[in-house]
Amino acid sequence: MANSGAEKLKLYSYWRSSCAHRVRIALTLKGIDYEYIPVNLLKGDQFDPDFKKINPMGTVPALVDGGVVINDSFAIIMYLDEKYPEPPLLPRDLHKRAVNYQAMSIVLSGIQPHQNLAVIRYIEEKVNAEEKTSWVNNAINKGFTALEKLLVSCAGKHATGDEIYLADLFLAPQIHGAINRFQINMEPYPTLAKCYESYNDLPVFQNALPEKQPDAPSTI
């Protein structure tokens, strides 16, 4: 383990959160031992005063490393990459590095916020369930169209080559959720589908899957 002998990091997570999912991949890839602390978003654990002291935004993930507290998945991942630099999450090639940042940004700002639990609950309450589904599907398909065009010329086994980099940490949870939660058809996105197949062959991705987390329901 990368942090052998040191105090365990604490990850506040929810099994189905794609944001927490990407951090779990990073921790597993880096070989970092950590304590998993579940935060049940459906039951409102994120609004508990004790948790709000850790993350005033009331969201997951949150990482506690001794006296250091970090609440944003991208910030957590970059913190881990700088503290535990092997294997690196960014390629040395500047163009591929920029592609990784672009792919990350499309997921982080262009797709995931539109399928956030609070957002889709609000739409369903104010409009209806059909509009909620349409909203989510539109956001995912728009983002996947952009990702397909971005990655088609630089993908190898994974998003930007044959090594696992930052883009893969963001793509894997997003594609997994799109297929299993929102029933998105991946046929128009062959590059993304190929990447997803490669993730399914690797324990580092499989061990981080939502259904394998300690707070996942016994039947999903």
Listing every helix as H and every strand as E from the N terminus to the C terminus, the arrangement reads EHEHEEHHHHHHH
What general outline do the C-alpha atoms trace? globular
Radius of gyration over all CA atoms, rounded: 17 Å
Low-confidence stretches: none
Neighbour order of strands in the largest sheet: 2-1-3-4
CATH top level class name of the largest domain: Mainly Alpha
Architecture of the largest domain, CATH level 2? Answer: Up-down Bundle
Overall number of strands: 4
Q: Give the fraction of residues assigned to helices.
A: 40-55%
Strand content: 5-15%
Number of helices: 9
Domain count: the total is: 2
Largest sheet: 4 strands, mixed
How confident overall, as mean pLDDT? 94
- The termini sit apart by 31 Å
Give the class from helix and strand content and strand pairing.
Answer: alpha+beta
Q: Helix and strand layout, with pairings?
A:
Blueprint: E1 9-13, H1 18-29, E2 34-38, H2 49-54, E3 62-65, E4 68-70, H3 73-83, H4 94-111, H5 117-126, H6 129-151, H7 166-180, H8 190-199, H9 203-206
Helix pairs in contact: 1-3, 1-7, 4-6, 4-7, 5-6, 7-8
Give a written overview of the molecule:
With 220 residues, this protein is α+β, with helices and mostly antiparallel strands. The chain has two domains: 10-87, Glutaredoxin; 94-206, Up-down Bundle (Glutathione S-transferase Yfyf (Class Pi), Chain A, domain 2). It is built from nine helices and four strands. The chain has a four-stranded mixed β-sheet with strand order 2-1-3-4. Helix 4 packs parallel to helix 7, helix 5 (117-126) runs antiparallel to helix 6 and helix 7 crosses helix 8 (190-199). This is glutathione transferase. Residues 93-218 form the GST C-terminal domain. Keywords: Transferase. It catalyses: RX + glutathione = an S-substituted glutathione + a halide anion + H(+).
